[in-house]
Design a protein that fits this description.
Layout: H1 9-22, E1 28-35, H2 46-61, E2 67-71, H3 75-79, H4 84-92, E3 98-102, H5 109-120, E4 125-132, H6 140-147, H7 153-156, H8 162-177, H9 181-200, H10 214-221, E5 228-230, E6 233-234, E7 243-251, E8 255-256, E9 259-260, E10 263-272, H11 287-299, E11 305-306, E12 312-313, E13 321-324, H12 330-339, H13 345-353, H14 383-396, E14 415-422, E15 427-435, E16 466-479, E17 489-502, E18 505-514, E19 525-530, E20 537-541
Parallel strand pairs: 2-3, 2-4, 13-14, 18-20
Antiparallel strand pairs: 1-7, 1-10, 4-7, 5-6, 8-9, 10-15, 11-12, 14-15, 16-17, 16-19, 17-18, 19-20
Helix pairs in contact: 1-11, 2-4, 9-10, 9-12, 12-13
């Protein structure tokens, strides 16, 4: 067998397209799906917590299960435990089966893609995922440190955390598309109101009940409580840290233990991008989501087309289509609508502002996150899996919260996309789920499966200062963390991104420390220095 990367580029591309289009010629059936509530602090240990989601499935299908995958981001740091898959096997009484743990940061779709392949090899696969993030032994500072370990070490030297990484992406997105700060703030407010409101109806959500309904959240969003976090992000643009877990049972056999499956997976894909955002071809987009969506749509027989600018869109989704997309931070909701081919930028803005993605609005045309998305909760290693559980329940007609069959618009949920993001867009996944009664769609070969573009470049001359252009900037606001006392800003960290130029051509992008507070616009000229004390880059506007 000839490896794809040894083929000439054009033929390699065709082989890759055919592989992704036809590798799902048989559906993988979802026989059961369960989850725990999203807890602020459950008080359990991580083995018990993850086992609880799987226990009802094991009790019903114990004799059918012969393989288990576990998704958990960092139990050794959060909970001081390793060898997690073996411990869960033991706890569930499944000793004797094959079991392993998979880690893709906050993206548990990776474990689903592996489980689907195992199912197509004949296994009946139990998939368990979750995280115990709020262990009482952890301080808030230590918890944030663990979460930020998915950010590359070189970026952490500049103070980059998960929120600030997304803030840089959002800043670049706004700059590239000419979106003003006020316009972006209006969109983020509407996204927060829509998301919290949907979560408020979900009885398993961490943020549930009347105080998270639209009017209350809009008041909070406009209040002093919504303090700046990582510009342009504010507190209510973030999701909670959560204890929680989910589990599904997958098989290529439509019937297990006398029960016939009601939901099937018809497409799936997992795609990695460069871990450092400065090395990506387009910082203003999550390219891994774009590519994963195209592969999963093609596998599921959902036609895609391309706009003149090369971005993908779906001209017509199957009947009864809805989506659960990864919105750990408000700007990701907007980016995902575009990167997953659901709307153009202009249409996405209009959809958000006019309720066209709001599952509680009579104007809704494409329900997004009826479970509340990640305002439901974000137990990092299990979030994508939990969103699959919520999607399963919505399709079979037994949702935890909002029931799309009773929405203020005519809707019968039949097909859905579940989307998940790992790290700052480093590894993203998409799963297409259908009701088993849906007519089969023939897998398609996409017109082209774009590569994840690279912008990892090097400068030729090591002399400084160098000319460049401004790309993005965020300010991390640091607050005191004394329990029971109002948060007071005590410091801040400024993080910028610039693109160096040599001989009139663009060179490498660099994270850099701004040398003053004067505002810059995307593309403004800058001068960049490298500090020989700490090795970091520094920049200021070129005011000459």
């Amino acid at each position: 067998m000839v490896a794809c990367d040894r083929l000439e580029p054009e033929r390699s591309q065709r082989v890759r397209q055919t592989r992704y289009a036809l590798s799902m010629h048989l559906p993988v059936f979802v026989h059961d799906a369960q989850r725990t509530p999203s807890y602020r602090n459950c008080g359990l240990d991580v083995v018990t917590l993850l086992s609880e989601a799987a226990r009802p499935i094991v009790q019903k299908y114990r004799d059918s299960i012969d393989c288990m995958f576990v998704s958990c981001q960092d139990p050794s740091s959060f909970n001081q435990i390793n060898h997690l898959a073996a411990a869960i096997c033991d706890n569930l009484g499944l000793v004797g089966i094959e079991a392993t743990r998979v880690e893709n940061a906050s993206n548990s779709i990776g474990v689903i893609t592996l489980a689907c392949k195992a199912a197509m090899c004949g296994s009946n696969v139990l998939v368990v995922g979750g995280e115990l993030m709020n262990d009482s032994a952890l301080s808030q500072a230590r918890r944030e440190e663990i979460i930020s370990q998915v950010v590359p070490a070189k970026d952490r030297e500049y103070g980059v955390t998960m929120p600030s990484a997304v803030a840089l992406i959002a800043s670049c997105f706004a700059g590239v598309h000419g979106i003003s700060a006020d316009r972006l703030r209006t969109l983020l407010e509407e996204i927060a109101v829509t998301s919290y409101n949907a979560a408020s109806f979900n009885r398993f959500a961490q943020l549930r009940g009347e105080k998270f309904r639209k009017r209350q959240i809009r008041e909070r969003y406009r209040s002093d409580r919504n303090r700046p976090w990582c510009d342009p992000l504010r507190f209510f643009d973030l999701c909670p840290t959560t204890d929680g877990s989910g589990a599904v049972l997958l098989s290529c056999n439509p019937k297990l233990g006398g029960y016939r499956a009601k939901v099937k997976i018809t497409g799936h894909a997992l795609v990695n991008d460069f871990n450092r955002i400065i090395h990506r071809g387009r910082i203003e987009a999550l390219a891994a989501s774009e590519v994963a969506a195209q592969r999963a749509y093609s596998m599921a027989g959902i036609p895609i087309e391309y706009r003149s600018d090369g971005t993908v869109f779906v001209p017509e989704f199957p009947p009864g289509f809805f989506a659960e997309i990864h919105d750990a931070f408000g700007p990701l909701y907007l980016l995902n609508l575009i990167n997953l081919g659901m709307f153009s930028l202009a249409d996405a803005e209009a959809a958000i502002l006019n309720g066209k993605t709001d599952p509680t609005s009579p104007n809704c045309v494409l329900p997004i996150n009826p479970s509340g998305g990640l305002k439901d909760g974000h137990p990092v290693g299990g979030t994508g899996l939990i969103k699959m559980v919520e999607t399963y329940w919505q399709i079979v007609g037994d949702p935890n919260g909002l029931n799309l069959r009773k929405a203020p618009f005519a809707f019968e949920p039949r097909t859905a996309v579940v989307h998940s993001v790992g790290g700052p867009g480093s590894v993203n996944g998409v799963v297409v789920m259908d009701h088993t009664d849906n007519e089969p769609r023939r897998p398609l070969s996409p017109a082209r499966t774009p590569t994840v573009l690279a912008a990892k470049r090097y400068f030729n001359e090591p002399s400084f200062p160098k000319p460049g252009r401004f790309v993005a900037r965020t300010r991390r606001h640091l607050y005191n963390a004394e329990p029971g006392r109002p948060a007071v800003e005590v410091d801040h960290v400024d993080i910028g991104m610039v693109e160096l130029w040599e001989d009139g051509h663009p060179g490498p992008r660099k994270l850099a420390v701004p040398m003053d507070d004067r505002p810059l616009q995307f593309g403004d000229p800058v001068r960049v220095w490298k500090s020989y004390r700490d090795g970091r880059y520094h920049y200021e506007g070129d005011y000459s």
